[in-house]
Design a protein that fits this description.
Length: about 375
Amino acid sequence: MIFSGKGHADLSWNWNQHTWSWRPDRGKWQPDFGFPKETVRLDVSTAFHPPADRLAFWSNYAFLGRDVVDEAQGSTPQGSTPQGSNQGGSNQGTVRTGAGADTFSARSRSIFDPGGAFFAYRATACAGRARPGVSRDGDISFGLILKGERRDIHIDGTETVTQAGNFFVYDRREVVRFRWTDHKAVSVTMSTERPTAVLGHEWPSSQAMAQALNGSRLAPLLRGQMLLLARQSGRMSVSEQSAVLHSLFDLILTILGQIPSTDGAAETRPRLDMLRQSTLRYIDQNIAMPHLDVMHIARVLGCSRATIYRAFADHDGAVADTIRRARLQRARQLLIEVPGMTVASVAARCGVSDIRTFNRMFRKFYGVTPREMQRGATGPAPI
Protein backbone atom coordinates (compact mmCIF):
# COMPACT_ATOMS: atom_id res chain seq x y z
CA MET A 1 0.00 0.00 0.00
CA ILE A 2 1.57 3.27 -1.05
CA PHE A 3 -0.42 5.54 1.20
CA SER A 4 -0.67 4.76 4.90
CA GLY A 5 -1.60 7.43 7.39
CA LYS A 6 -0.06 7.72 10.84
CA GLY A 7 -2.04 8.41 13.96
CA HIS A 8 -5.20 10.50 14.05
CA ALA A 9 -3.91 13.91 13.07
CA ASP A 10 -4.10 16.07 9.98
CA LEU A 11 -0.34 16.68 10.07
CA SER A 12 2.55 14.52 11.18
CA TRP A 13 6.21 15.53 10.86
CA ASN A 14 9.57 14.50 12.28
CA TRP A 15 11.80 17.58 12.54
CA ASN A 16 12.64 20.30 15.02
CA GLN A 17 13.21 24.03 14.67
CA HIS A 18 16.95 23.54 14.16
CA THR A 19 16.42 21.26 11.17
CA TRP A 20 13.79 23.44 9.49
CA SER A 21 12.42 26.78 10.65
CA TRP A 22 9.02 26.01 9.12
CA ARG A 23 6.49 24.07 11.17
CA PRO A 24 3.22 23.10 9.47
CA ASP A 25 1.15 23.73 12.59
CA ARG A 26 2.23 27.37 12.60
CA GLY A 27 1.04 28.41 9.17
CA LYS A 28 1.60 27.88 5.48
CA TRP A 29 4.98 27.25 3.96
CA GLN A 30 6.49 30.37 2.37
CA PRO A 31 9.54 30.70 0.08
CA ASP A 32 11.57 32.34 2.84
CA PHE A 33 11.53 29.07 4.77
CA GLY A 34 13.40 27.29 1.96
CA PHE A 35 14.13 23.57 2.31
CA PRO A 36 15.29 21.75 5.48
CA LYS A 37 18.92 21.16 6.42
CA GLU A 38 18.46 17.39 6.26
CA THR A 39 15.94 14.87 4.97
CA VAL A 40 12.60 15.04 6.83
CA ARG A 41 9.09 13.71 6.42
CA LEU A 42 5.59 15.19 6.45
CA ASP A 43 2.28 13.32 6.31
CA VAL A 44 -0.91 15.23 5.49
CA SER A 45 -4.48 13.91 5.64
CA THR A 46 -7.87 15.57 5.39
CA ALA A 47 -9.58 12.62 7.09
CA PHE A 48 -9.69 14.19 10.55
CA HIS A 49 -10.30 17.76 9.42
CA PRO A 50 -13.79 19.32 9.50
CA PRO A 51 -15.42 18.35 6.18
CA ALA A 52 -16.23 21.91 5.15
CA ASP A 53 -12.57 22.92 5.51
CA ARG A 54 -10.87 19.98 3.83
CA LEU A 55 -10.21 21.50 0.43
CA ALA A 56 -8.87 24.73 1.92
CA PHE A 57 -6.67 22.76 4.30
CA TRP A 58 -5.31 20.59 1.47
CA SER A 59 -4.63 23.58 -0.76
CA ASN A 60 -2.38 25.07 1.91
CA TYR A 61 -0.04 22.08 1.68
CA ALA A 62 -0.48 20.62 -1.80
CA PHE A 63 -1.58 23.53 -4.02
CA LEU A 64 0.43 26.44 -2.68
CA GLY A 65 -0.18 29.64 -4.60
CA ARG A 66 -3.08 28.36 -6.68
CA ASP A 67 -6.83 28.82 -6.77
CA VAL A 68 -8.53 25.49 -6.17
CA VAL A 69 -12.15 24.49 -6.55
CA ASP A 70 -14.06 21.35 -5.69
CA GLU A 71 -14.45 19.65 -9.05
CA ALA A 72 -17.18 17.37 -7.76
CA GLN A 73 -19.62 20.24 -7.19
CA GLY A 74 -18.10 23.30 -8.83
CA SER A 75 -17.19 26.53 -7.10
CA THR A 76 -19.18 29.00 -5.11
CA PRO A 77 -19.29 32.63 -6.17
CA GLN A 78 -16.12 34.68 -5.92
CA GLY A 79 -15.38 35.69 -2.36
CA SER A 80 -16.84 32.67 -0.61
CA THR A 81 -14.23 31.68 1.93
CA PRO A 82 -14.67 28.60 4.09
CA GLN A 83 -13.65 28.46 7.70
CA GLY A 84 -9.94 27.76 8.05
CA SER A 85 -8.94 29.07 4.62
CA ASN A 86 -6.63 32.00 3.95
CA GLN A 87 -8.17 35.44 4.08
CA GLY A 88 -7.07 37.52 1.12
CA GLY A 89 -3.48 38.39 0.28
CA SER A 90 -2.26 38.25 -3.29
CA ASN A 91 0.67 36.09 -2.28
CA GLN A 92 -1.55 33.55 -0.58
CA GLY A 93 -4.03 32.69 -3.31
CA THR A 94 -7.65 32.02 -2.51
CA VAL A 95 -9.50 28.78 -2.05
CA ARG A 96 -12.98 28.43 -3.47
CA THR A 97 -15.15 25.54 -2.39
CA GLY A 98 -18.67 24.67 -3.35
CA ALA A 99 -21.58 23.00 -1.68
CA GLY A 100 -19.85 19.69 -2.24
CA ALA A 101 -16.62 20.67 -0.49
CA ASP A 102 -17.27 18.17 2.26
CA THR A 103 -16.98 15.40 -0.33
CA PHE A 104 -13.32 16.22 -0.93
CA SER A 105 -10.66 14.01 0.63
CA ALA A 106 -6.92 13.64 0.19
CA ARG A 107 -3.75 12.47 1.87
CA SER A 108 -0.06 12.57 1.08
CA ARG A 109 3.32 11.40 2.32
CA SER A 110 6.16 13.80 1.60
CA ILE A 111 9.93 13.70 1.92
CA PHE A 112 11.73 17.05 2.02
CA ASP A 113 15.46 17.36 1.42
CA PRO A 114 17.90 20.29 1.08
CA GLY A 115 17.78 19.70 -2.68
CA GLY A 116 14.04 19.22 -3.20
CA ALA A 117 11.09 17.06 -2.24
CA PHE A 118 9.12 13.92 -3.06
CA PHE A 119 5.34 13.56 -2.77
CA ALA A 120 3.11 10.49 -2.88
CA TYR A 121 -0.54 11.47 -2.75
CA ARG A 122 -4.11 10.65 -3.63
CA ALA A 123 -7.14 12.92 -3.76
CA THR A 124 -10.63 13.24 -5.13
CA ALA A 125 -11.34 15.43 -8.15
CA CYS A 126 -10.30 19.08 -8.00
CA ALA A 127 -9.36 21.89 -10.36
CA GLY A 128 -7.66 25.23 -10.17
CA ARG A 129 -5.50 27.93 -11.63
CA ALA A 130 -1.77 28.24 -11.10
CA ARG A 131 -0.11 31.62 -10.96
CA PRO A 132 3.63 32.16 -11.46
CA GLY A 133 5.43 34.43 -9.05
CA VAL A 134 3.27 33.25 -6.17
CA SER A 135 4.58 31.00 -3.43
CA ARG A 136 6.77 28.16 -4.75
CA ASP A 137 7.82 29.80 -8.02
CA GLY A 138 11.45 28.76 -7.50
CA ASP A 139 10.90 25.07 -8.16
CA ILE A 140 9.63 22.67 -10.80
CA SER A 141 7.75 19.39 -10.37
CA PHE A 142 7.96 16.13 -12.32
CA GLY A 143 5.04 13.82 -11.65
CA LEU A 144 3.89 10.30 -12.48
CA ILE A 145 0.16 9.53 -12.50
CA LEU A 146 -0.72 6.15 -11.01
CA LYS A 147 -4.49 6.49 -11.31
CA GLY A 148 -6.79 9.07 -12.83
CA GLU A 149 -6.16 11.90 -15.26
CA ARG A 150 -4.69 15.40 -15.24
CA ARG A 151 -5.57 18.11 -17.75
CA ASP A 152 -3.44 21.26 -18.14
CA ILE A 153 -4.41 24.33 -20.15
CA HIS A 154 -1.39 26.49 -20.95
CA ILE A 155 -1.09 30.22 -21.42
CA ASP A 156 -1.03 29.84 -25.21
CA GLY A 157 -4.32 27.93 -25.11
CA THR A 158 -2.84 24.51 -25.80
CA GLU A 159 -4.10 21.62 -23.71
CA THR A 160 -2.21 18.64 -22.33
CA VAL A 161 -3.96 15.53 -21.04
CA THR A 162 -1.90 13.09 -18.97
CA GLN A 163 -3.29 9.68 -18.07
CA ALA A 164 -2.23 6.95 -15.67
CA GLY A 165 1.22 5.54 -16.30
CA ASN A 166 2.59 8.75 -17.81
CA PHE A 167 4.76 11.60 -16.57
CA PHE A 168 3.72 15.24 -16.40
CA VAL A 169 5.74 18.38 -15.72
CA TYR A 170 4.48 21.33 -13.72
CA ASP A 171 6.61 24.38 -14.55
CA ARG A 172 5.67 27.39 -12.45
CA ARG A 173 6.95 29.80 -15.09
CA GLU A 174 3.86 28.95 -17.11
CA VAL A 175 0.35 30.10 -16.24
CA VAL A 176 -1.90 27.06 -16.49
CA ARG A 177 -5.26 25.86 -15.42
CA PHE A 178 -5.29 22.30 -14.21
CA ARG A 179 -7.99 19.74 -13.59
CA TRP A 180 -7.66 16.42 -11.81
CA THR A 181 -10.08 13.53 -11.74
CA ASP A 182 -9.94 11.27 -8.68
CA HIS A 183 -6.27 10.39 -8.70
CA LYS A 184 -3.14 8.85 -7.22
CA ALA A 185 0.25 10.25 -8.17
CA VAL A 186 3.86 10.70 -7.14
CA SER A 187 6.04 13.68 -7.94
CA VAL A 188 9.56 15.03 -7.50
CA THR A 189 10.12 18.73 -6.90
CA MET A 190 13.49 20.42 -7.23
CA SER A 191 14.85 23.94 -7.33
CA THR A 192 14.89 25.50 -10.79
CA GLU A 193 18.64 26.00 -10.35
CA ARG A 194 19.25 22.32 -11.09
CA PRO A 195 17.61 22.09 -14.53
CA THR A 196 18.92 25.56 -15.38
CA ALA A 197 22.46 24.26 -14.92
CA VAL A 198 21.70 21.49 -17.43
CA LEU A 199 19.37 23.24 -19.88
CA GLY A 200 20.51 26.85 -19.62
CA HIS A 201 18.07 29.70 -19.12
CA GLU A 202 16.07 28.93 -22.27
CA TRP A 203 14.16 25.87 -21.13
CA PRO A 204 11.98 23.73 -23.36
CA SER A 205 8.26 23.83 -22.63
CA SER A 206 6.73 21.65 -19.95
CA GLN A 207 5.10 19.63 -22.75
CA ALA A 208 8.52 18.99 -24.34
CA MET A 209 10.01 17.96 -20.99
CA ALA A 210 7.10 15.60 -20.29
CA GLN A 211 7.47 14.12 -23.77
CA ALA A 212 11.17 13.54 -23.11
CA LEU A 213 10.44 11.79 -19.81
CA ASN A 214 7.76 9.54 -21.33
CA GLY A 215 9.83 8.68 -24.40
CA SER A 216 13.16 8.07 -22.71
CA ARG A 217 14.76 4.65 -22.41
CA LEU A 218 15.26 5.57 -18.77
CA ALA A 219 11.50 5.98 -18.23
CA PRO A 220 11.02 2.44 -16.77
CA LEU A 221 13.92 3.01 -14.37
CA LEU A 222 12.53 6.40 -13.33
CA ARG A 223 9.06 4.93 -12.75
CA GLY A 224 10.55 2.10 -10.72
CA GLN A 225 12.60 4.43 -8.51
CA MET A 226 9.62 6.71 -7.87
CA LEU A 227 7.43 3.76 -6.90
CA LEU A 228 10.21 2.34 -4.73
CA LEU A 229 10.43 5.54 -2.71
CA ALA A 230 6.64 5.79 -2.44
CA ARG A 231 6.18 2.22 -1.24
CA GLN A 232 9.28 1.72 0.89
CA SER A 233 10.02 5.15 2.36
CA GLY A 234 8.49 4.16 5.69
CA ARG A 235 11.03 1.34 6.00
CA MET A 236 14.01 3.40 4.86
CA SER A 237 16.52 5.24 6.97
CA VAL A 238 17.01 8.97 6.43
CA SER A 239 20.20 8.34 4.46
CA GLU A 240 18.44 5.76 2.26
CA GLN A 241 15.56 8.14 1.55
CA SER A 242 18.03 10.87 0.62
CA ALA A 243 20.01 8.52 -1.65
CA VAL A 244 16.93 7.42 -3.61
CA LEU A 245 15.62 10.97 -3.85
CA HIS A 246 18.92 12.21 -5.27
CA SER A 247 19.00 9.30 -7.71
CA LEU A 248 15.64 10.59 -8.96
CA PHE A 249 17.12 14.06 -9.39
CA ASP A 250 19.98 12.57 -11.42
CA LEU A 251 17.72 10.45 -13.62
CA ILE A 252 15.38 13.33 -14.42
CA LEU A 253 18.22 15.73 -15.20
CA THR A 254 19.94 13.14 -17.37
CA ILE A 255 16.77 12.73 -19.43
CA LEU A 256 16.30 16.48 -19.70
CA GLY A 257 19.94 16.82 -20.73
CA GLN A 258 19.18 14.72 -23.81
CA ILE A 259 16.71 17.31 -25.11
CA PRO A 260 18.40 19.20 -27.98
CA SER A 261 19.56 22.64 -26.93
CA THR A 262 17.26 25.43 -28.09
CA ASP A 263 20.21 27.53 -29.21
CA GLY A 264 21.97 24.65 -30.98
CA ALA A 265 24.89 24.75 -28.56
CA ALA A 266 27.10 21.74 -28.18
CA GLU A 267 27.07 19.56 -25.08
CA THR A 268 27.65 21.62 -21.96
CA ARG A 269 29.82 20.54 -19.06
CA PRO A 270 26.81 20.33 -16.70
CA ARG A 271 25.06 17.97 -19.12
CA LEU A 272 28.13 15.77 -19.33
CA ASP A 273 28.50 15.82 -15.55
CA MET A 274 24.91 14.67 -15.14
CA LEU A 275 25.51 11.90 -17.68
CA ARG A 276 28.57 10.79 -15.73
CA GLN A 277 26.58 10.70 -12.47
CA SER A 278 23.85 8.64 -14.13
CA THR A 279 26.46 6.28 -15.56
CA LEU A 280 28.04 5.79 -12.13
CA ARG A 281 24.66 5.17 -10.56
CA TYR A 282 23.72 2.66 -13.26
CA ILE A 283 27.02 0.83 -12.75
CA ASP A 284 26.43 0.65 -9.01
CA GLN A 285 22.88 -0.67 -9.43
CA ASN A 286 23.81 -3.25 -12.08
CA ILE A 287 27.24 -4.40 -10.94
CA ALA A 288 26.17 -8.08 -11.03
CA MET A 289 25.67 -7.89 -14.80
CA PRO A 290 28.57 -9.79 -16.47
CA HIS A 291 28.34 -7.89 -19.76
CA LEU A 292 28.16 -4.43 -18.23
CA ASP A 293 30.20 -2.23 -20.56
CA VAL A 294 30.16 1.16 -22.26
CA MET A 295 28.12 -0.04 -25.23
CA HIS A 296 25.39 -1.43 -22.98
CA ILE A 297 25.28 1.69 -20.79
CA ALA A 298 25.12 3.99 -23.82
CA ARG A 299 22.21 1.99 -25.21
CA VAL A 300 20.32 2.17 -21.90
CA LEU A 301 20.98 5.89 -21.39
CA GLY A 302 20.11 6.72 -24.98
CA CYS A 303 23.42 8.27 -26.03
CA SER A 304 26.56 7.32 -27.93
CA ARG A 305 29.66 5.69 -26.48
CA ALA A 306 31.63 8.76 -27.51
CA THR A 307 29.38 10.97 -25.37
CA ILE A 308 30.00 8.79 -22.31
CA TYR A 309 33.73 8.88 -23.01
CA ARG A 310 33.57 12.69 -23.10
CA ALA A 311 31.65 12.71 -19.82
CA PHE A 312 34.55 10.85 -18.18
CA ALA A 313 37.33 12.70 -20.01
CA ASP A 314 38.06 15.21 -17.24
CA HIS A 315 38.03 12.60 -14.48
CA ASP A 316 40.52 9.98 -13.38
CA GLY A 317 40.03 6.58 -14.97
CA ALA A 318 38.31 5.39 -18.11
CA VAL A 319 34.80 3.94 -18.03
CA ALA A 320 36.08 0.36 -18.20
CA ASP A 321 38.41 1.05 -15.25
CA THR A 322 35.49 2.55 -13.33
CA ILE A 323 33.41 -0.60 -13.88
CA ARG A 324 36.28 -2.87 -12.84
CA ARG A 325 36.99 -0.80 -9.72
CA ALA A 326 33.29 -0.84 -8.78
CA ARG A 327 33.19 -4.65 -9.11
CA LEU A 328 36.22 -5.08 -6.86
CA GLN A 329 35.02 -2.60 -4.27
CA ARG A 330 31.68 -4.39 -4.07
CA ALA A 331 33.52 -7.71 -3.75
CA ARG A 332 35.61 -6.38 -0.86
CA GLN A 333 32.45 -5.17 0.87
CA LEU A 334 30.78 -8.58 0.54
CA LEU A 335 33.85 -10.49 1.71
CA ILE A 336 34.06 -8.37 4.86
CA GLU A 337 30.37 -7.99 5.66
CA VAL A 338 29.17 -11.48 4.64
CA PRO A 339 31.98 -13.79 5.78
CA GLY A 340 30.03 -16.98 5.08
CA MET A 341 29.70 -16.25 1.37
CA THR A 342 31.90 -18.32 -0.93
CA VAL A 343 34.40 -16.59 -3.17
CA ALA A 344 32.57 -17.95 -6.22
CA SER A 345 29.30 -16.43 -4.99
CA VAL A 346 31.00 -13.10 -4.35
CA ALA A 347 32.47 -13.12 -7.85
CA ALA A 348 29.05 -13.87 -9.37
CA ARG A 349 27.40 -11.10 -7.33
CA CYS A 350 29.99 -8.72 -8.78
CA GLY A 351 29.53 -9.77 -12.40
CA VAL A 352 32.68 -11.89 -12.80
CA SER A 353 31.92 -15.42 -14.00
CA ASP A 354 35.47 -16.84 -14.08
CA ILE A 355 36.85 -17.44 -10.58
CA ARG A 356 40.50 -17.41 -11.70
CA THR A 357 40.04 -14.07 -13.41
CA PHE A 358 38.34 -12.75 -10.30
CA ASN A 359 41.17 -13.93 -8.00
CA ARG A 360 43.80 -12.38 -10.26
CA MET A 361 41.97 -9.04 -10.52
CA PHE A 362 41.35 -8.90 -6.77
CA ARG A 363 44.94 -9.68 -5.79
CA LYS A 364 46.31 -7.12 -8.25
CA PHE A 365 44.00 -4.42 -6.89
CA TYR A 366 44.19 -5.13 -3.13
CA GLY A 367 47.44 -7.06 -2.74
CA VAL A 368 45.69 -10.02 -1.07
CA THR A 369 43.50 -12.84 -2.33
CA PRO A 370 39.74 -12.89 -1.69
CA ARG A 371 40.19 -15.70 0.88
CA GLU A 372 42.86 -13.71 2.69
CA MET A 373 40.50 -10.76 2.76
CA GLN A 374 37.87 -12.95 4.40
CA ARG A 375 40.37 -14.10 7.02
CA GLY A 376 41.03 -10.55 8.10
CA ALA A 377 43.76 -9.22 5.82
CA THR A 378 41.90 -6.06 4.87
CA GLY A 379 44.31 -4.78 2.25
CA PRO A 380 44.32 -1.14 1.20
CA ALA A 381 41.10 0.83 1.41
CA PRO A 382 39.09 1.27 -1.79
CA ILE A 383 40.31 4.08 -3.99
